Amino acid sequence: MRVGAGLIELHVHGSRSLKQKRGVVKAIVQRLRNRFNISVAEVDGQETWQRAVLGLAVVGCDAQGVRRRLRTAVEFVESLHLAEIRGADVEILDVARTDFNEGTAEDDPLPWENE
Question: Residue ranges of the domains in the chain?
């Protein structure tokens, strides 16, 4: 399993208030979710009126496909012309497959159930 995480730093030109910026960010987030079915959230810059940082997450089977989806999402944000992209970064994490039931009896509690 591959997990892709991306950050997009945006500058919202012409924004004169947090309300204006939030409207632009909300539109970008909604379009990304609808078009690419990825997880998106504003992760930094919430209290600034022209800067926003979006966090994106994608899960898939192969690193190339995950990276391509994130890159395409960044290009899509750029094509909207709602905000200027000041920076973008993508990282791919390889999560090893684990057999969660190996070595445990059916009635044994799962590790998080012991807390």
Answer: 2-96
Distances (CA, A) of 15 to 64, 81, 99: 36, 14, 50
pTM for this structure?
Answer: 0.81
C-alpha 49: how far from chain center: 21
* DSSP-assigned letter for residue 81: T
**DSSP for residue 113:** G
CA 44 vs CA 29, 90, 112: distances in Å: 14, 16, 30
User: Rounded to the nearest 10 degrees, what angle do helices 63-80 and 18-36 cross at?
Assistant: 140
As a whole number of angstroms, the distance between CA 59 and CA 77 comes to 20
User: Do 82 and 27 meet the contact criterion of CB atoms below 8 Å apart?
Assistant: yes
**Does the pLDDT at position 98 exceed 80?**
no
- 2-96 CATH: 3.30.70.1120
